[in-house]
Amino acid sequence: MKPFEQVVADHGGTVWRVCRAVVGPLDADDAWSETFLAALRAYPGLPEGSDVRAWLVTIAHRKAVDIHRARARRAVPVAEVPDHGVVEPASDEHDELLAAVARLPERQRLTVAYHHVAGLPYREVAELVGGTPEAARRAAADGVAALRRALGTTAAARPVVPVPGGAR
User: Fold this and answer.
1) How many Cα atoms are found within 13 Å in the side-chain-facing hemisphere of 84?
2) Contact 129/136 with Cβ under 8 angstroms?
3) Are 145 and 98 in contact (CB under 8 A)?
4) DSSP assignment of 96-156
5) Cα–Cα dist 26/45, whole Å
6) How far apart are CA 160 and CA 97, in angstroms?
7) Beta-carbon neighbour count of residue 17 at 10 Å?
8) Is the Cβ–Cβ distance between 43 and 4 less than 8 Å?
């Protein structure tokens, strides 16, 4: 079995991109950290020959659910309630794409993240989000189509998800 440090080096970027797509940029680092803390504890018991990437994405999915639940429970105090949603400032070259992914309906956003970012087969995506592999495939296809519409005609030439070189 590989040392855990090598697992983090091999899959850390993919897990971070999945976390960013699923929980958004504000909670992505927390989800990533929680994922690898949980994985560190469970790694010694992982059966030899397991698909480590799929295992990590499953943990990330569960941590994302925990973050969504926690976010729904806590009140956010504000001096004045805005008339519209708050748009966060640009932080990297993929902001337009990430914003479009964030606007997708939840099922489409999750299937795009798990299939196109993490590279999981539709069977495993369906296990994570519920439903059949065919329904996961349809949701991902609808999500990609919506992204292409949202990003205009140049989107067909772009990758569906950001893959920064070696960045976490």
Assistant:
1) 2
2) yes
3) no
4) HHHHHHHTS-HHHHHHIIIIIIT---HHHHHHHHSS-HHHHHHHHHHHHHHHHHHH-GGGG
5) 31
6) 8
7) 25
8) yes
Digitized pLDDT (tens) for each residue of the chain, 168 residues in all: 899 999 999 999 999 999 998 888 888 899 999 999 999 999 999 999 999 999 999 999 989 888 878 877 776 677 876 666 555 555 565 778 888 888 999 999 999 999 988 889 999 999 999 999 999 999 999 999 999 998 885 544 444 444 444 333
CA angle 42, 15, 3 (to 5 degrees): 45
Angle between helices 95-102 and 4-23 in degrees, nearest 10: 70
* Cα separation, 43 vs 47, whole angstroms: 9
CB-count exposure of residue 73 (10 Å: 0-12, 13-18, 19+): exposed
Q: Which amino acid is at 153?
A: T
| Structure-derived torsion over alpha carbons of residues 18, 22, 26, 27, reported in degrees to the nearest 10 | -80
Q: Decide if 138 contacts 2 (C-beta within 8 A).
A: no
